[in-house]
Design brief:
The complex is a heterodimer of chains A (297) and B (325). Chain A is built from 13 helices and no strands. Chain A is mainly alpha-helical and 297 residues long. The longest helix of chain A is centred in the N-terminal third of the chain and has 36 residues. The radius of gyration of chain A is 24 Å and the shape is globular. Chain B has 325 residues and is mainly alpha-helical. Chain B contains 13 helices and no strands. In chain B, helix 3 packs across helix 12 and helix 10 packs antiparallel against helix 12. Chain B is globular. The chains are: A mainly alpha (297), B mainly alpha (325). Chains A and B meet through helix 1, helix 6, helix 7, helix 11 and helix 12 of A and helix 6, helix 7, helix 10 and helix 12 of B.
Chain lengths: 297, 325
C-alpha cells in the first residue's frame, strides 16, 4: 500500500519533470509559429517565470485538489473530460480481457498437458505470432476483411457488441500470446510435482487434477502477467482507439497531443498512472485470496 | 596477478578455463550450435529470414529493383502487385500513393526499422545492465534509489511515456531511438540486478576478492560474462518490442517522419487507401510480423539451447529421445 503511494508520487513528479523541465510549457502549448511576445505573455500568464520550486509547489497543490487547470482545447476543466472518457476505455479493456484470459488459459493447458505434440507446437507459433503482430496493423486487416469486404461489422465507432468486436479482437492477440506462454510453462512445471502423482494415484479424473490442483498452484505467475497485460492494454488502446475512433482516454491523449493541450495531457497521464498503480495493488491483493501462503502485514 | 580467481571464475562461466568436471573433448561451439539450429526447422527458417532481411536492408541500394524515391507519376499511383513497369522489372508488390515501388521502399524502410530497433536496444541495454550491476553489487542506498526508479517507471505504460516525451522533444530518428531507450532500460536493470545478487554470493567472487581483485575487475571480468546469455536473449526479444513500438509511434505521427521512412510510417501513409489499395497496408505489416516473429522464435530457441534442462533435445539425434518427453 505504501509502495503504491510511493510509486504514484514518483510518477506525478516525473510528469511534472517531463513537461516543465524537459520542455517549455509555453512553447509546448503554442503553435510553432508563435511570436516571442506571445510566448512571453503566456509564460507570465502561467506563472512560468517563477522559480521551479514555486511552480512545483503550485502544481502539487493543484493536484491535491484534483485541479489540472482548464483544457485549452475544450475550455473546461481537464479532469472531468478524462473521467468522462475513462469508462469507455475500461469497457474495451474489460471485453478484451474477458475474451483473452479464458482463451489463453485454455491454450496454455492444452499445450502443457501434451508437451511437444502438434497441438503444443501450434499453440507456441500462435502465441508467438500474437506477441509479434503490430496490433494496429491487425486492426486494419480485420477492418479490411470484416468491415470492407464482408460488411459484417462497422469499420469504426462506439457502441454495442458489433462495435467492440474488432478493436477487442485486435487488442486481445497480444495478451493471449503472452498469457498462454506463461500458463504453459507454469503448468508444465507444476505437472512434474509429486502432488500430481498423488492426485492421480487417488484415482482423481485427469480434468480434476489439471484444473483444481495444478492450475490453482500455477496461478501466481499467471495472475501477475495478467495484471501486467491489463496495464499495458492502455498502450495498445492508444493506437487501437485512434484506429477505430473509440472515444476512450487513449484517443483523448493523442487528440490532446495534436492540439498541444498540456493540462489535458497531464490529467490523462496522471489518470493512467493511478489506474496502473491501482491495478498492481489489486493483483497483490489477489495473491492472498488465491494462495494462503502469501500474507501481508 | 589473480590467476586463481580467473581459473575458478572461468570454470563457472563454462568457458575455456580449467574445468573441475572432466568432459570429453568438445566440438567447436559454433558447429554444435549450427547443427542444433538445423535440427529445429522453425528456428532455422527464422534465422534464414533474419539473415536475408539484414542483407537486403544493408545492400538495399543494390538489391532494390527500383529507386525508392522516384515516383512513377500519377499514371503509376497505387498499382496492384505484379504490375509490369517500363524498364522490365515488374512492381512485384505494387506501387504506393506516389507511384513508387513498394518492395524497394520496404527494403529501405527495413534499414530504419532495424537500425532504430538495434540502436535503442544497445543504448538501453548498456545503461540498464550497468545500473543493474551497480545496484546488485554494491547494494545499500544506491540499490534502493535505482530500484525505486525502476519501480516508478514500471508503473507507467512505456508507449505512453514515449508519446509524452516525444511530444515534448519533437520528432526525429535519433530522438525516437533515445526515447525508446529511455522507456525500456529498467527491464535490463531488473534482470541484471537479480542475476548479480545470486552471483555475488558465489565462491568464485569470494576467491577473486580474497586475492585482491578490485570491485571493477570482479564486476566486469567475473560477474558480467556469466550474465551474457540471459541478457542476450532479453536484448533480442527487446529488439522485436522496439520495432513494434517504433511502428506504433510512427503510425501515430510522433515517430519517424518523412523524408525518412519506416514500416510503421508506410502503414500510416497507406491507411487512407485501405479500401482501394490493400497492398499498401498489408505488406509493411507482414514485414513487421515476420521480423518480430523470427526474432521471437530465435530467442526461444537460444533460451532452450542455453538451458541445460532443455538443451539435450536439440543436441541429441531424434531417435534417441524418449517419445513425448
Amino acid at each position: 500500500m505504501f509502495h503504491s503511494i510511493f510509486i504514484l508520487f514518483g510518477l506525478v513528479i516525473a510528469v511534472f519533470f517531463v513537461t516543465h523541465l524537459l520542455g517549455d510549457p509555453a512553447r509546448l502549448m503554442l503553435r510553432p509559429e508563435a511570436t516571442p511576445d506571445q510566448v512571453e505573455a503566456l509564460r507570465e500568464d502561467l506563472g512560468l517565470n517563477d522559480s521551479i520550486w514555486v511552480q512545483f509547489g503550485r502544481y502539487m497543490g493543484n493536484l491535491a485538489r484534483g485541479d489540472f487547470g482548464d483544457s485549452l482545447w475544450q475550455r473546461v476543466p481537464a479532469m472531468p473530460i478524462v473521467l468522462d472518457r475513462l469508462p469507455n476505455t475500461l469497457y474495451l479493456a474489460g471485453v478484451t480481457m474477458a475474451v483473452a484470459v479464458p482463451l489463453a488459459i485454455g491454450l496454455g493447458i492444452v499445450s502443457a498437458v501434451r508437451p511437444r505434440s502438434i497441438a503444443d507446437r501450434l499453440v507456441t507459433v500462435v502465441s508467438l505470432s500474437g506477441v509479434s503482430v503490430a496490433d494496429f496493423w491487425l486492426g486494419l486487416m480485420l477492418v479490411l476483411v470484416f468491415a470492407v469486404q464482408l460488411g459484417w461489422l462497422p469499420t469504426s465507432g462506439f457502441g454495442g457488441l458489433s462495435f467492440v468486436a474488432l478493436p477487442a479482437a485486435a487488442l486481445a492477440v497480444r495478451p493471449i500470446g503472452r498469457i498462454s506462454q506463461v500458463v504453459r510453462s507454469a503448468m508444465f512445471d507444476e505437472m512434474q510435482r509429486t502432488y500430481v502423482t498423488t492426485a492421480r494415484a487417488k484415482g482423481l479424473r485427469e480434468r480434476v487434477v489439471v484444473i483444481s490442483h495444478t492450475l490453482k498452484n500455477a496461478a501466481i505467475p499467471i495472475i501477475t502477467l495478467t495484471g501486467d497485460e491489463a496495464a499495458s492494454l492502455l498502450n495498445g488502446a492508444v493506437v487501437i482507439e485512434t484506429l477505430f475512433g473509440w472515444p476512450g482516454i487513449g484517443i483523448l491523449l493523442i487528440q490532446a497531443i495534436e492540439r498541444r493541450d498540456l493540462p489535458l495531457i497531464e490529467a490523462t497521464a496522471i489518470v493512467i498512472a493511478i489506474m496502473v498503480v491501482g491495478l498492481n495493488l489489486l493483483v497483490d491483493l489477489t495473491y492472498t485470496l488465491i494462495d494462503p501462503r502469501v500474507r501481508y502485514q | 596477478m589473480s590467476e586463481l580467481g580467473k581459473v575458478v571464475g572461468r570454470g563457472q562461466a563454462g568457458g575455456s578455463g580449467v574445468d573441475l568436471l572432466a568432459r570429453p573433448p568438445r566440438r567447436s561451439g559454433l558447429i554444435v550450435a549450427a547443427r542444433a539450429l538445423l535440427a529445429d526447422k522453425l528456428a532455422f527458417a527464422a534465422f534464414l529470414f533474419l539473415v536475408l532481411l539484414i542483407l537486403g536492408a544493408t545492400f538495399a541500394n543494390i538489391v532494390a529493383p527500383h529507386d525508392p524515391e522516384a515516383g512513377g507519376g500519377l499514371m503509376l499511383r497505387n498499382k496492384p502487385p505484379m504490375t509490369a513497369s517500363e524498364d522490365g522489372l515488374p512492381y512485384l508488390l505494387g506501387t504506393d500513393q506516389l507511384g513508387r515501388d513498394l518492395l524497394s521502399r520496404l527494403l529501405y524502410g527495413a534499414r530504419v526499422s532495424l537500425a532504430v530497433g538495434v540502436a535503442s536496444v544497445l543504448i538501453s541495454g548498456t545503461f540498464g545492465v550497468g545500473l543493474g550491476l551497480i545496484a546488485g553489487y554494491y547494494r545499500g542506498l544506491l540499490d534502493d534509489v535505482i530500484m525505486r526508479l525502476v519501480d516508478v517507471q514500471m508503473g507507467f505504460p512505456s508507449l505512453l511515456l514515449a508519446l509524452v516525451v516525444l511530444y515534448v522533444l519533437g520528432p526525429g530518428v535519433w530522438k525516437v531511438i533515445l526515447v525508446l531507450a529511455v522507456t525500456r532500460w529498467m527491464v535490463y536493470a531488473r534482470v541484471t540486478r537479480g542475476l548479480v545478487l545470486s552471483y555475488r554470493e558465489n565462491v568464485f567472487v569470494d576467491a577473486a576478492r580474497t586475492i585482491g581483485a578490485s570491485d571493477r575487475r570482479i564486476l566486469l571480468l567475473h560477474i558480467l560474462p556469466n550474465l551474457f546469455s540471459p541478457i542476450l536473449v532479453l536484448a533480442t526479444l527487446e529488439v522485436a518490442t522496439m520495432i513494434l513500438t517504433e511502428a506504433s509511434l510512427s503510425f501515430l505521427g510522433l515517430g519517424i517522419q518523412p523524408p525518412d521512412s519506416s514500416w510503421g510510417l508506410m502503414l500510416a501513409q497507406g491507411r487512407q487507401y485501405v479500401q482501394t489499395a490493400w497492398w499498401l497496408v498489408t505488406f509493411p505489416g507482414v514485414m513487421i510480423l515476420l521480423t518480430a516473429l523470427s526474432i521471437n522464435l530465435l530467442a526461444t530457441w537460444v533460451r532452450a539451447i542455453t538451458d541445460p534442462v532443455t538443451r539435450w533435445r536439440y543436441l541429441m539425434p531424434k531417435r534417441q529421445q524418449a517419445p513425448g518427453g
